[in-house]
Amino acid sequence: MAVLGVDLGGTSIKIGVFEQAGIIKEKFVFPTKEPVYESLEAAIETVMSKHSGVKAIGIGTPGFVDREKGRIIFASENLPGWSGTEVKKQLESKFHLSVIVENDANVATLAEVNHGSAKNYKSALMLTLGTGVGGGVVIDNKILYGPHGAVGEFGHMILYPEGHECNCGRRGCQEQYVSGHSIERRIREAGLSVTPLELMQMKEQSMAAQEIINDFTYDLALSISSLQAAFDMEVLILGGGVSHSAGYWMDDLNKHLKDLLFHPLEVAIAELKNDAGIVGAAALVFIDERKETVTFNR
After folding, report:
1. What is the pLDDT of residue 290?
2. What is the mean pLDDT of residues 74-93?
3. DSSP, residue by residue, 55-88
4. pTM for this one?
5. Do residues 152 and 214 touch, judged by C-beta distance below 8 A?
6. What is the pLDDT of residue 130?
7. 184 to each of 15, 99, 136, 145, 198, how far by Cα in Å?
8. What is the pLDDT of residue 14?
9. How far is it, in rounded angstroms, from Cα 205 to Cα 209?
10. Are 180 and 216 in contact (CB under 8 A)?
């Protein structure tokens, strides 16, 4: 018997086949096409035609998710028409097996807690730094899950009131200061013509690069200190594309954290990288019979 772990993204659908938690037997990648649901269903059908005996499917997807119904409450236009999709209902009707749907950042956090950089901790918070900023919280191997599917939208916590305008319509969100997009903006504002990676590599030779990295890591430290005050987690995991360059700026971040944290906090870089989505999606299935979800209601 096998489990499918599905990581749905704006450009690709990754599917892993698992016979035991954390160990990928085979991995597939398909382009995400429109309509998104039909693209997802076709990808799953292709994998199932190659692997008999699939007993359940776990799916990680961008957006706000009603986990009980497996419905997409809201998703950005990176996935056109995805908002409102009854993913669980439609896939279960098609394939006649159990389907669990969860936000992709929650799924990645669950993967790191079970099989990655946080596997030795009971409480962990993941901050994903990509084009935008997201994250998830896991306590005693249970995803913290709210009534609107929006726990972990850390990118839309206000860092600087009346600051830069965010695509959510508000101003000063963390996403405008600690995302990959924010680093690109800082580079433009400094009048430089380099990529973020090139900026990191020129740190030792450029005062402008040092200032950008210092400001970015200070803002990230502010964000982490606020999250510590709210969640008091044992470990904070940094994931997403920006974390891949952490070797250039981790010392700067730790310097700022010393002055801002209430007490010491382990900060770790995500280990599973591009496999976190499929590993975590499969983990949803492997732990589901224990009902490993913390829910707080209105």
Report:
1. 53
2. 93
3. EEEEEEESSEEETTTTEEEE--TTSTT-TT-BHH
4. 0.86
5. no
6. 86
7. 31, 38, 25, 32, 11
8. 97
9. 8
10. no
